[in-house]
Every structure is written in C-alpha cells, then in structure tokens.
Amino acid sequence: MILVALGAMLIPTGLRAADYCDDKFEPGESPDGKAMLMVSSMMSLALAERYCGAPPTPLSQIDVVVEELHGCGPRARLEAEFKKRMEEEKGAEAMTTDALIRDLVVEDDKDVPQAEVDRRAKAGIEAELGGCSELLKIYQDFQDRYRNPPKWPHEPDQ
Asked: Residue 109 has what DSSP assignment?
C-alpha cells in the first residue's frame, strides 16, 4: 500500500518547473515558490522594521535578493527591470509598511483600531515568528545577500 501511495506521488503532473527568471507564467508552470518568497520576505521585513527597530529595506532590494535566490541575474539587469516595472506602474497605488501590516493582521476589517493591529502583530511575532530576534536575523540575511551578490554567470553545479 505504501508503494502505491509513493508511486502516485511520483506520477508526473501537468505542472513543470517554473522558469522564474522570465517573469511570464506559461501554461503548466507553477509560480508559487517565487511569489510566496517575495510576499513572505516583504511581510517579515515590514514587521522587523515596524516592531523590531530594523531600518527600512527598499522594495528594490527585496526584489533583487529574491530574484537572485532563484538563480536570476545579473544584478544590473534585475535592477533595470525593477526600475522599468515601477515606471510602468506609476499609477498603481504603492502599499506602505503600515498598510502591508494591516492587511496581514486584519485583512479587510478596516474598523480595527491601530492599537489592536499593533497588539495582534506583536503577539504574532512572538508566537509564530520566533520574536524580534528571528525577524532581525531575516533582515540581516537580506542585507548580507544584497551586499554580497552571487557571481554571474553561475558556475555549473558539480
């Protein structure tokens, strides 16, 4: 029975590995990994900034680090593409750190006072994220990765 279950898990599905560097979703391509990392990174860094005293991290740095973590590059191209996307989206509403945190903590409930948002966010940081020390480690990891980009082009794996 275990072999049947294992075999079923290994049967190829309609999904194929995503080409994360082309910023297009082709049929059958799963976008989840990169998108999830981008959102979780933005949330973690916003919480670290607002509640743990971390300096602000520009969205451009978050974008570049996530792209590089997925093997994309070189950095000059990534930064130029980010700048171009931002220019194309000038009319789009920019989300502030406070709005991002509010959306994370209370979603669409606009009637929740800011003090309650802060209380829930702080409780979540302690209970679910390991406290400010863990968020500050994430923040520092992003800063280190931004200061020390991977070599480009990548050398093949051995």
From this structure: -
